[in-house]
Design goal:
The complex is a heterodimer of chains A (353) and B (554).
Chain A: H1 3-22, H2 25-45, H3 47-77, H4 80-87, H5 91-108, H6 110-113, H7 144-180, H8 182-197, H9 200-211, H10 215-242, H11 245-253, H12 257-293, H13 305-311, H14 324-352
Helix pairs in contact in A: 1-2, 2-3, 3-4, 3-5, 5-7, 5-14, 7-8, 7-10, 7-12, 8-10, 9-10, 10-12, 12-13, 12-14, 13-14
Chain B: E1 9-20, E2 23-35, E3 40-44, H1 51-57, E4 66-75, E5 78-79, H2 85-91, E6 96-99, H3 103-106, H4 113-123, H5 129-142, H6 148-151, H7 161-173, E7 179-183, H8 191-208, E8 211-216, H9 219-225, E9 228-233, E10 236-242, H10 243-248, H11 253-260, E11 280-289, E12 292-302, E13 307-311, H12 318-326, E14 333-338, E15 341-343, H13 352-357, E16 358-361, H14 365-368, H15 375-387, H16 391-404, H17 409-412, H18 422-435, E17 440-444, H19 452-469, E18 472-477, H20 480-486, E19 489-494, E20 497-503, H21 504-507, H22 514-522, H23 530-538, H24 544-553
Parallel strand pairs in B: 3-8, 3-9, 6-7, 7-8, 13-18, 13-19, 16-17, 17-18
Antiparallel strand pairs in B: 1-2, 1-4, 4-5, 9-10, 11-12, 11-14, 14-15, 19-20
Helix pairs in contact in B: 4-5, 4-7, 7-8, 15-16, 15-18, 16-18, 18-19, 22-24
The chains are: A mainly alpha (353), B alpha/beta (554).
């Protein structure tokens, strides 16, 4: 037995005993289960498996610690009301916030962070990782790490702009339909039904084939298609608000449609709409990545996570994990956004009672 | 009633806490309660007094976000606070039953009534499904529900509110419990329906010798139902006594103030000169929702400085009349005149000046105020919109209005509606209507969602404003005590028609239209023998929905 294994099991046994002695049930169960699993893994796969387990546990612990201290940090620096909301937030939400923040920083400061240019060829095709190229080269010999950093800017940036557009379009029309009602509502709702009847991805592929694959076209096509979902939500939310007496009072006062929508209805619909914004952002993000993977999204040489997975996919058959890193970047952001959205949903539903 | 035996329910020094703003607050501060077998205890108090919380605690249950933090609850020798959840669950439904305020919201709309009725006995193993179903029919018959053999096979939405409340009482009886908790069972009902439910509940509780806790804020109701009354205020007991003793000689100041609420009455104003033009005149209005006609040839006038009370059961068309006046529902024929000039039927075609003259105060202050606007904005908007005041002048005017409704401007200007109590919210609703400086205000059931003391404050405020500003009110209500307090003229409506109209003083003197008579006689009085005498005088078949239905037939 190596000194590492002895130290490893010693630490785990110590931790379980400590947890048992102090009566911490979850900690005891967790530590002891880990002990059993490690013993099994150690016997079957040897010492390397133990190092992997240590790495995973350490990463998890680091994530929890980061989330915990980030939450405390926010609670300390934010104004009173926001600090109170943060303090009661679950750790997942604080982890999500931190991750999103990291993505934003990466996207904004991409040129400063990336060691090479977006489409600069620095080495041979599929060059292995070394001191110069952290994650090696891609199929044309470009630095994979630099491209992932720039990809944050393109993929996340385009997804954000698209989602904002989606909400402006779908939200405005949904609120309008609910407030005016009658034939306006009928017309818009049936139009949305027609748009929704065609499978979204196929419809997007069709439209992009017709109108070309410039970034602006891409944004517009996805925004229009996705706005149908936002329309349905904002209309459903607004329909419940429109029947309130304060809306009737405002109508009887003679207020304009603009005032009704922006001052009376919208402030009461923000909570579900913000939650939907996070969710919708993920979907748009995945749609763009998916379209890029299919070759109709963001066009080369612009770095984009979806097309990066496709371009380097052949490496997977050689047992390399690098092509999966952009995919992991997508997955992590999606999970992070959903953590935050869950927290907001819980908050907005908690406000009701 | 044997008082010397072991009590059925004994609560000692009960303390309950609620969770808000990351802290636990005590909401019930050490209440004692003793209930013997077959006895009915009335719990009364304003909202927030802890009546329902104590009622639920009697089952060993607390709402989410509440916890029992001290004291003991002993039900028939079983200590409920320390006993395991399984034991408490086996008691609920079987030995302790609960009847909720809103039967319509408490029944599952997807199941037939009888299926919901048999659930508890089958679950607790008390009876088989079939026995229980037969028992249900027997109970329906005892509760005098129409078509007892058949009504159980309907879905909740196919049954009227009063019948549903009686079905719920039958359901509570399904396991023959020792104790039933009635949580405001008639609050949501019309007076004519309420009386039927009261008679049925009292009857069945007496027949089976069930003990009951009757929670309500209506003193006249509790006087009919309870043997003893306990008065609560903010989670503390004020006093407890036998019903008659309590009614005749309340000891505490607070109890006396509760008793005195119904005494607020204003003398009827002088009738207007025949030549005077009414502020608002409804002329031969017929109105319909789609193909259903809800108003038939309705006419009445409202004069400056006077109050017209429009009374009737729900569905009688009184709120629809208000919608026609405000222009939300354009009439099919007939019309509304403002100061002798016709008003366009649709509010969108009215001028801003016409809209300003007709204002409305709503029943539910919760939904009438935008929860995302501050009080200053809510009242400031009509000031700015109609009178064009901005900046400092607008602020001054809002402060004046807040002073007028007796709320301190410096304290309330920046608040959100959620930070106000029910009565304060209703005052803001009044201020918003006043901000337009109208001639005419429609008050739609403005006091029915409020506690009696608070409601009295609102009525006095409205009365004072009327005298100061010469306003004309249209007061929609189903509460005849309110009518007595504030009206000059009364319009009685039934099925979309005006059945009787005239000055208040005449209205409360016989002879009446039979429907007015039914309405008047159904208003509970503080006399504990009132229900008994009424039932003797009219007979059980001649009250509530049955009587109302007979009137339609004849």
């Amino acid at each position: 037995m190596s000194p590492f294994a002895i130290g490893y099991f010693g630490a785990l046994i110590g931790a379980s005993s400590l947890a048992a002695w102090s009566g911490r049930r979850e900690a005891l169960v967790g530590a002891f289960l880990l002990l059993v699993v490690s013993a099994f893994a150690g016997i079957v796969w040897g010492g390397a498996a133990l190092r992997w387990i240590t790495l995973v546990v350490a990463l998890g612990a680091a994530a929890v610690g980061l989330a915990y201290s980030f939450r405390a940090f926010l609670a300390a620096v934010l104004p009173r009301d926001a600090a109170r909301a943060i303090r009661s937030a679950p750790l997942t939400a604080s982890f999500g916030l931190l991750t999103i923040l990291a993505y934003i920083v990466t996207a904004v400061f991409a040129p400063a962070i990336a060691p090479f240019g977006e489409s600069q060829i620095v080495g041979g095709a599929f060059a292995p990782p070394d001191d110069r190229m952290l994650l090696g080269g891609d199929q044309l010999g470009r630095d994979l790490f630099s491209r992932i950093v720039y990809g944050a800017r393109n993929t996340v940036g385009i997804a954000f702009v698209t989602t904002v557009l989606t909400f402006l379009l779908g939200g405005a029309l949904g609120l309008l339909a609910a407030t005016v009602g009658g034939w306006v509502d009928q017309l818009l709702s049936r139009l949305v039904d027609v748009l929704m009847a065609i499978p979204q991805l196929i419809f997007a592929l069709l439209l992009l084939t017709i109108f070309g694959t410039e970034v602006v076209t891409l944004i517009l096509v996805i925004a229009v298609l996705d706005s149908t979902r936002v329309y349905r939500l904002s209309r459903a939310v607004a329909v419940n608000i429109v029947v309130m007496d304060y809306i009737e009072a405002a109508k009887l006062r003679g207020e304009t449609l603009w005032w009704l929508i922006t001052r009376e209805i919208l402030p009461n619909a923000t909570a579900p709409l913000i939650a939907e914004f996070g969710l919708r952002f993920c979907f748009v993000f995945l749609t763009i990545a998916g379209l890029s993977f299919l070759g109709l999204g963001i066009q080369p040489p612009t770095a984009d996570w979806g097309s990066m997975v496709r371009d380097n996919a052949q490496l997977i058959s050689f047992g390399e994990v690098t092509p999966l890193i952009p995919a992991a970047a997508i997955a992590l952001l999606t999970v992070a956004v959903n953590f935050v959205v869950d927290w907001m949903l819980q908050r907005s539903s908690g406000l009701k009672d | 009633m044997a008082r010397n035996q072991h009590p059925l329910l004994e609560i000692r020094d009960l303390r309950i806490e609620g969770y808000a703003d990351e802290k636990w607050f005590e909401i019930v501060h050490g209440v004692d309660l003793t209930l013997h077998r077959g006895e009915v205890l009335g719990l009364i108090g304003e909202s927030g007094a802890g009546k329902s919380t104590i009622g639920l605690a009697a089952m060993g249950y607390t709402r989410d976000g509440c916890r029992i933090s001290g004291g003991t609850i002993t039900f028939d020798g079983i200590e409920l606070t320390s006993t395991p959840e399984e034991v408490r669950r086996s008691l609920r439904g079987a030995r302790i039953a609960y009847v909720a305020q809103s039967a319509a919201a408490s029944f599952n709309p997807a199941h037939r009534l009888i299926d919901q009725h048999t659930e508890a006995p089958v679950q607790h193993g008390a009876r088989s499904r079939r026995e229980s179903a037969e028992d249900a029919v027997a109970l329906y018959r005892r509760l005098r529900l129409p078509n007892p053999d058949e009504i159980g096979f309907r879905y909740p939405h196919q049954v009227s509110g009063g019948q549903l409340q009686r079905c719920m009482t039958a359901m509570a009886m399904s396991c023959r419990p020792d104790l039933i908790i009635f949580d405001e069972p008639t609050t949501a009902l019309d007076v004519t329906t309420q009386i039927e439910v009261l008679a049925a509940i009292r009857d069945i509780v007496e027949q089976f010798g069930t003990a009951a806790i009757y929670i309500t804020h209506d003193l006249a109701v509790v006087a009919q139902m309870a043997d003893r009354i306990k008065v609560l205020l903010k989670g503390r007991e004020v006093e407890e006594a036998e019903t008659r003793v309590m009614l005749d000689a309340p000891r505490e100041e607070y109890t006396r103030s509760l008793w005195a609420v119904r005494s607020f009455a204003r003398a009827q104003n002088q009738p207007p000169a025949p030549s005077e033009t009414p502020v608002v005149s409804v002329r031969g209005v017929t109105a319909a929702y789609g193909a259903t006609t809800v108003l038939r040839d309705v006419s009445f006038d409202m004069h400056q400085g006077r109050t017209v009370a429009v009374v009737g059961e729900s569905g009688s068309g009184k709120s629809t009349a208000a919608r026609v006046i405000t222009g939300l529902l354009p009439p099919v024929s007939g019309g509304v005149m403002l100061d002798g000039a016709p008003l366009p039927g649709d509010f969108r075609r009215r001028t801003r000046e016409q809209l300003r003259q007709v204002q409305m105060i709503y029943q539910m202050a919760d939904t009438a105020l935008n929860p995302r606007q501050r009080i200053g904005e809510i009242i400031g908007r009509p000031v700015e919109f109609y009178l064009g005041l901005r900046g400092v002048k607008r602020k001054q005017r809002v402060d004046e209005l807040l002073d007028q409704i007796e709320l301190d401007p410096s304290k309330y200007y920046e608040r959100y509606p959620a930070e106000l109590s029910g009565g304060q919210k209703q005052r803001i609703g009044i201020a918003r209507a006043l901000a337009a400086e109208p001639k005419f205000i429609i008050c739609d059931e403005v006091t029915s969602a409020l506690d009696q003391l608070v409601a009295e404050g609102i009525l006095k405020l409205l009365d004072r404003l009327q005298r100061e500003l010469g306003l004309a009110y249209m007061f929609i209500t189903h509460d005849l005590a309110t009518v007595r307090a504030i009206a000059d003229e009364v319009v009685v409506m039934k099925d979309g028609q005006v059945v009787e109209a005239g000055p208040k003083d005449q209205m409360f003197e016989p002879p009446h239209h039979p429907y007015t008579d039914l309405l008047l006689s159904s208003v509970p009085e503080m006399d504990p023998d009132w229900l008994t005498r009424l039932l003797q005088a009219r007979g059980v078949e001649n009250i509530g929905e049955a009587a109302s239905a007979r009137m339609d037939g004849g």
